[in-house]
Amino acid sequence: xxxxxxxxxxxxxxxxxxxxxxxxxxxxxxxxxxxxxxxxxxxxxxxxxxxxxxxxxxxxxxxxxxxxxxxxxxxxxxxxxxxxxxxxxxxxxxxxxxxxxxxxxxxxxxxxxx
Length: 114
Hints:
With about 110 residues, the chain is mostly beta strands. The chain has a single domain (about 20-110), classed as Sandwich (Immunoglobulin-like), CATH 2.60.40.2890. Helix content is about 15%, strand content about 40%. It is built from one helix and eight strands; from the N terminus they run αββββββββ. The protein has one helix spanning about 5-20; strands at about 25-30, 40-45, 50, 65, 75-85, 90-95, 100-105, 110. The strands form two sheets. It has a four-stranded mixed beta sheet with strand order 4-1-7-8, with no helix packed on it. Strands 3-2-5-6 form a four-stranded antiparallel beta sheet, with no helix packed on it. Strand 5 (about 75-85) and strand 6 (about 90-95) form a beta hairpin. The radius of gyration is 19 Å and the shape is globular.
């Protein structure tokens, strides 16, 4: 290995060691395990609900991927789910840990990466 190549390799390793192990955004899957289509998925920040994250219904049995497009901010975020019949509920989700959200008729279960 040449000296220049060894130096470049050393710089790359040094740079990677300074980079956080997790960088990017909070991506997660949402699976509808309930009996009714989900028509709204909202998150709350500073007491205000976000716009609806989904543009199509999440049918029972369907899974979609959502992305905060950031990895900054509070990890635990109040999340609201609304069904096609107008019923809804909300729950806290730790998006720093969650990689799968399972929606049931009246509850939301989040699971961490294994």
